[in-house]
Protein 1
Amino acid sequence: MAEAWGERALDTVAASDIEAMQRQAAATARSRRNSRSCRHAGEHVIAAARAIYNRAIADGLIDATASPAHRVVKPRRLPSIRRALMPDELEQINLAARTSGNDVILDALLLRLHTETAC
């Protein structure tokens, strides 16, 4: 934000400017295997803008109703894709650890520890 609007006063940034930065961040974010369509990059832009404007409001630099960051809607989070391992998946992992590797006893003990403690 400082790089894009460093010369501008806080009260001259519009909500549409923040939305444009949000779209740009989502479009240019690095996509990874577990990426969620770069939605979080855009969400982080809005969160950062809100944090800056919250400080400006707390310091009395702008009025609480003048914050453009609070007029931009944050995208909703998608439901998590994380899940527990199925019993057959866990058994396959344990079988591979017990039958291969340099120290199969230690590998089996470590997996047992993680299974029992739900790590």
Protein 2
Amino acid sequence: MSDSTSLSIFADQGLSEPQARFCTLIATGHSLDSAYKLTGTTEYRYTKWLVELPAFERAIRSARAILAERHLNDMDRLLFTEPDVQRLALMQRHYHWKAGKLIPKVYGDKLDLNVSTTVDLAGALAEAKERARLRLMCDPVPVIEGEFESVPSVAVHRSVDDESVAPASTPPMPDIFS
């Protein structure tokens, strides 16, 4: 971790001295618990700052973005300096996971597949009908030559399927549709 006073960018954002110091500590890689202890704040005060002060919320988001960029830089540095390949893979997975949690919109794994497009169905159907009409004019269907043969009607109206015919002793079912 670097010295927490090396980043003074948060002092210019309209924050009090403890708030700017808190954001600086987060940006340099300190945990929330460590930042609480070093600035003398509590979790309640931190939460209150987040809810009531939009400038503090923006500063915390910026601090997390700075931390994520530092982690990504560490991943690049580790790629060339770490001799243990398994340890390197574990550290890179950790940094990637942490960057995804710090800035999910940039480094997260979730894909946003929301589509907000409206379609005019009446217009689309009219265009489709016009294309179909033009297609019929361009590609007429060839006439099929053939002969028509009349099939004689069946003289006895009975079921071919003997299993579906009720036995003669069963009374007929009433017609419920009449």
